[in-house]
Amino acid sequence: MDDQRTLERYEAVVIGAGQSGLAAGYHLARRGIDALVLEATERVGDNWRSRYDSLRLYSPARYDALPGLAFPLPRNAFPTGKQMADYLESYARHHDLAVRTGVAVDELKPVADAGGGYLITAGERHFQARQVIVAAGPFVRPRVPDFASELDPEIRQLHSADYRNLSQLRDGPVLVVGASHSGADLALEAAKRHRTILSGKSHGQLPFSVESRRGRLAWPVIKFLALNLLTLRTPIGRKMAPEVRMGGGPLLRVRRGDLLHAGVEWHEIRTAGVRHGKPLLADGTVLDVANVIWCTGLRPDYRWIKMPLVGADGWPEQERGVATAADGLYFLGIPFLSGFASMLVLGATKDAEYVVGRLAARAHRQDRRDQPV
Questions:
Q1: What is the 3-state secondary structure (H, E, C) of 48-94?
Q2: Which pLDDT tens digit goes with each residue over 245-282?
Q3: Which of 66, 88, 124, 216 could form an S-S bond across to 45 if both were Cys, CB 3.0 to 4.6 Å?
Q4: Which pTM value belongs to this model?
Q5: Cβ proximity of 227 and 339 under 8 Å
Q6: Would you give the end-to-end CA distance of the chain in angstroms?
Q7: What is the pLDDT of residues 71-86, one digit of tens each?
Q8: CA separation (Å) from 342 to 227, 230, 334?
């Protein structure tokens, strides 16, 4: 580093101030570890604010709180994305966490100087940390099939990451591609004003909606199963993990009956291509639509981490968030990091506590080695 004045040093840096990053920040602060949380957006919670307007969490408020601050809604209410964003912002403020917003990390790489650890570059700013927790959120690059570019330019195309509300759609029929959570949500919403077609394989559904009376009563059981049965320690959890990481979880709120009752035409086959500028289903059906909403998920993107850590499946090689090939590097926010609960706030909290425990133990061992004999 040519100008040492631009380099800030910490024991730990957390990249990302979502629920996982803030939970990690809380546990780091409680252990007295010198740490900084970096967030790319201008406000804590902006990633939640940028999602579609009608989004609501799949877990009730009693399970959506991070450690040390209750969620300011009735226990059985399901927060909106914007309410979750505001809660995260208030959480960082309430605990006076060391969060720096508007800092988009460009590169993370190991360093071999006397300080060791990792160098984090964010524009003109540089940070060095003996340990790093990557909690930046893995789903970054919208997944859209190559043939999307062959659709008639008059068809309005949106990825679910860019969809906000119905005002973005043209008059005429809507094709929603992808039948997981966002696909079901947006198909039901589109059906209020448009003829709506849903294309995609079913990944199953709960026997009841999570917000039904039965669902509310069942949440303690759902929590127990998510934390104890559907984990990487069990055969059923290991079988489920790849599908969940690809965005193929079962329907939790909006289910098949809701979609059919609303008039959604569900084709459980994939959209396979284009014919004469129109979407083509795998069975040869051509759909004459004015809009396509791609609910086809987002890909992880770890190209900014300059280390060979990503496996053949595109995910970092780690065990419960601890990188297997890089000492002092950790991951949070990955679906099925430890189990199904990792995609819920209650699981993010548990994962963060475990990872910070491992980080603290390593910091203690390092401090003992650095002490003069």
A1: HHCCCCCCECCCCHHHCCCCCCCCCCCCCCCCEHHHHHHHHHHHHHH
A2: 776 678 889 999 999 999 999 999 999 999 999 999 99
A3: 88
A4: 0.91
A5: yes
A6: 31
A7: 999 999 999 999 999 9
A8: 9, 10, 7
